[in-house]
Specification:
The complex is a heterodimer of chains A (479) and B (333). Chain A is mainly alpha-helical and 479 residues long. Chain A is built from 18 helices and two strands. Chain A has two domains: 95 residues, no CATH class; 248 residues, no CATH class. Chain B has a domain of 211 residues. In chain B, strand 2 and strand 3 form a beta hairpin. Chain B starts with a helix and ends in a 14-residue tail after the last helix. The mean pLDDT of chain B is 88. At the A-B interface, helix 9, helix 15 and helix 17 of A face helix 5, helix 10 and helix 12 of B.
Chain lengths: 479, 333
């Protein structure tokens, strides 16, 4: 309600300003669309220029970034068509992707942002991409199917330990090499190619997801959340105590498994296709890891979009909106929920394995409950169920985690003479974000229209997710 | 399913009997006393979960952190306000502890009610998972408040409670600090039962828990009753926080998260929404933890306590969601 009033006020101001410039509402409407679009774009660019000038970063690269951001903001792009192809909706993603691919080349010449300091380093971008993948994986469960998963870190851990088992010296009594690169003299243990390990980790984690899901997915929303939390807490404890698992060293305990092999394409691909033979010895280590992570994110985005529009994805949305109605329409609840779990787990596992390979190690202390909430916060902040929203949330929060908070803290301490250790309060800040978003904009910053409607109107006369309660009278709109 | 349960219980009994045979009965009794004391602290926290769940069907995720704040309030009272130290005289300890108890209970009650007002009440008509998510957010906020207040490391509380023997018979010793924990817990629980069963406000709470709309039609101020429930739950957590700080002697910002999950498990084990069930579940979890950590014959040890507790939680939720004492409800399955 309040938002609509704000929007109306903005519209009034806009028409008043146009009328002063001699353009009435009728005259504006009589112009051709292309003219209107150009006027609107010019206006936004002008606003952007003013903003950039105000912040005092007057460099060509800053202008370029500002222009790109503004082009993304200008809404009329989405209608652009060439012939029968609706190119418009791909403009924004393509521009972002192009910028991301070229990022390692121009990051050095980017200016400092006010408050946030320098743009993230390429190594941070790798982590951002990996967390984006995890957040998109969690989005299958939380965003699409509407099941709250508080133990997503378990899948991340499982993927990381798959990399630890199949691409390191952990099992020294064996000696297996399946396409691994960059092995030292006298290596022992299982060494699979990281590409293979990624797939294996995804599949193994998906299977774990099914095993966890089958008994628990019958539970109602909040019980399911607690059970997943339980699994998320058990998994790292197993990892921590797994060095004497009935006398067998499975996880190397608190020391973790390190080092883990890096990815690589081997010498043949290096000579013929100019792909890096071994990422760890490539000169631009972070950049190649970043580009590979981008490919993984693209695959995840592609799967997200295709699955969302598939029969399965529509079934997920149906059970999210009304489980009983979905079941009545013949949606097999258990199978559909288990699939969402398995899909989410798959991407979590792949991301975990890739991260382990990038960090060249996996340690039980990385897999606390905090990480589950961290990833959940990304999904909530960006907008549950919306791919672009989740990507934004993941990039922003993992940037804050890696560099942003420290920079902001330094800025605050520098300007106000305080001595705050801002990164210490990281999770409190995420807590505030979660509470504020849920209270004021539960559909997230970039919501899908469908989710927004659900949150604001509800989809039937009982609260969402609350299907097992039967025909009880419930409060609606009591806020 | 009953067959499996019987097998599990038999295995548990066999394991305990075998342990008694290996370690001797006196040792087993001493371990049990530890379990009883743990269980008493867990009961205070578990009751808070169960009260709130009973009335709102909300897992108050921040409850464990309210308990932790209770411990922090108590630590401040004991250390800074009364300046108690180990082996202080009984004359100074008793009023100081009672005053700290009162302060912790009042402060935590108000804190819990404030959380409800800020984070849960605006979402009462929202999807069911929305308040659960804000509860997680509030839990993190409280932890960081504690970090800002007391720092990220342990706050040590001096050993104020006397540690002498109440009795020591044939190797079975019961010490004063364990007795005092129980002695403080029991009247608090009795007061709660009296409040819920025999007062007008308690009747309003029960009515609201049963059917919020019907209660409102009967003239019960539902929002006030819910706030009152949160105050009571917070006060119990505050008492638990004081006992924890006194008995374990150290408390940290994340103490509440772990203990809160254990207490929640206790509430689920007993049957969530059921007050005697929460106490029973808490005692059971307390004993299980003490046996696991104290007994020697094939006990997994403290490394695995958390996994065992969560496994119990998962098994209970999957196979008997209504808990030990709960009734089978439509939402249970």
């Amino acid at each position: 309600m309040r938002r609509r009033r704000i929007a109306e006020a903005v519209a009034r101001v806009r028409w008043a300003a146009l009328a002063r410039a001699g353009v009435s509402e009728e005259r504006w409407d009589s112009w051709p669309r292309s003219v209107r679009r150009a006027v609107r774009a010019t206006f936004w660019v002008a606003v952007g220029l003013v903003l950039v000038a105000l912040f005092g970063v007057w460099k060509t690269s800053a202008l370029a970034v500002a222009a790109v951001i503004l082009l993304l903001v200008v809404p009329s792009w989405s209608g652009l068509r060439v012939g029968r192809l609706a190119l418009g909706k791909w403009v924004a993603p393509a521009v972002v992707l192009g910028l991301a691919i070229a990022y390692p080349y121009f990051v050095g010449s980017l200016p400092q942002l006010p408050i946030f300091g320098p743009f993230p380093q390429v190594s941070t971008m790798v982590v951002m991409a990996i967390f984006t993948m995890m957040a998109l994986g969690l989005n299958f469960v939380v965003g699409y199917a509407g099941l709250l998963d508080l133990g997503y870190v378990a899948f991340y851990a499982m993927g990381a330990y798959m990399a630890g088992w199949f691409a390191s010296d952990q099992f020294a009594s064996r000696r297996v090499n399946v396409g691994a690169v960059g092995l030292a003299e006298g290596w022992t243990g299982l060494h699979f190619s990281i590409w293979l390990v990624l797939a294996m980790a995804g599949v193994a984690t998906a299977i774990i997801g099914v095993i966890i899901g089958l008994p628990t997915l019958r539970l109602r929303g909040d019980y399911l959340a607690i059970v997943t939390l339980g699994f998320g807490e058990i998994m790292p404890q197993v990892a921590r105590n797994g060095d004497h698992f009935f006398g067998f060293n499975l996880t190397n305990g608190t020391g973790g498994i390190t080092p883990i092999d890096g990815p690589g394409f081997g010498t043949w691909a290096h000579e013929h296709l100019h792909l890096p033979a071994n990422y760890l010895t490539a000169g631009n280590l972070d950049s190649v890891f970043f580009w590979t992570a981008l490919v993984l994110v693209l695959v995840t985005v592609f799967c997200s979009m295709r699955l969302r529009d598939s029969r399965l994805g529509r079934a997920w949305v149906a059970i999210r909106e009304d489980e009983v109605a979905a079941a009545a329409m013949g949606v097999p609840l258990m199978r559909v929920k288990t699939w969402s779990y398995a899909t989410g787990a798959f991407f979590g596992g792949v991301a975990g394995a890739y991260y382990a390979s990038y960090r060249s190690g996996t340690f039980p202390d990385d897999f606390f409950f905090n990480i589950s909430v961290f990833i959940l916060c990304m999904v909530i902040l960006g907008g549950m169920g919306n791919i672009w929203g989740v990507i934004f949330g993941a990039c922003f929060l993992s940037y804050l985690d890696r560099e942003g908070l420290a920079n902001v803290g330094a800025w605050i301490n520098g300007h106000f003479g305080t001595n705050l250790n801002v990164p210490l309060y990281e999770f409190g800040i995420y807590g505030v974000i979660i509470v504020v978003v849920m209270l004021f904009r539960p559909e997230g910053l970039i919501p899908s229209a469908r989710q927004a409607a659900e949150f604001h109107e509800g989809v039937h006369d009982e609260p969402l997710y609350d299907v097992a309660r039967g025909a009880g009278v419930t409060e609606q709109g009591a806020t | 399913m009953p067959g499996t349960a019987v097998v599990l219980v038999c295995a548990l009994v066999f394991w305990i009997v075998e342990n008694i045979r290996v370690d001797g009965f006196a040792y087993f009794c001493n371990i049990s006393f530890i379990g009883l004391t743990n269980g008493a602290v867990y009961a205070l926290v578990a009751l808070g979960y169960t009260l709130v769940y009973g009335i709102l069907e909300l897992i108050n995720f921040a409850h464990g952190d309210v308990f932790m704040m209770g411990g922090m309030f108590s630590a401040t009272m004991i250390l800074s306000v009364f300046g108690l130290h180990a082996h202080a005289s009984a004359g100074s300890i008793v009023p100081a502890i009672l005053a700290s108890l009162a302060v912790a209970m009042v402060a935590c009650g108000l804190l819990n009610a404030t959380i409800e007002r800020i984070a849960y009440r605006p979402l009462r008509g929202a999807p069911r998972l929305a308040p659960l998510i804000t509860a997680i957010g509030m839990s993190f906020v409280l932890e960081d408040v504690a970090i800002a207040w007391k720092g990220p490391s342990y706050t040590a509380v001096p050993q104020v409670l006397p540690t002498g023997h109440v009795f020591s018979v044939a190797g079975v010793t019961y010490t004063w600090e364990k007795l005092i924990v129980v002695v403080i817990t029991v009247p608090v629980l009795a007061g709660l039962v009296w409040l819920v069963q025999h007062t007008r406000q308690g009747k309003a709470m029960r009515a609201t828990a049963q059917d919020r709309d019907a209660a409102a039609m009967m003239g019960i101020d539902v929002n006030r009753t819910i706030s009152f429930t949160f105050v009571i739950a917070g006060a119990l957590a505050g008492a638990g926080g004081l006992l924890y700080a006194l008995y374990f002697g150290q408390i940290r910002y994340d103490t509440g998260f772990q203990l809160g999950l254990i207490a929640f498990t206790a509430a689920v084990l007993g049957g969530i929404g059921n007050l005697p069930g929460a106490v029973l579940g808490a005692l059971a979890i307390g004993f299980i933890q003490a046996f696991n950590e104290g007994l020697t014959w094939h006990a997994p040890g403290s490394d695995w306590t958390q996994s065992i507790v969560f496994s119990i939680l998962i098994l209970i939720l999957v196979f008997r969601p209504e808990g030990l004492l709960g009734e089978r409800t439509p939402e249970g399955a």
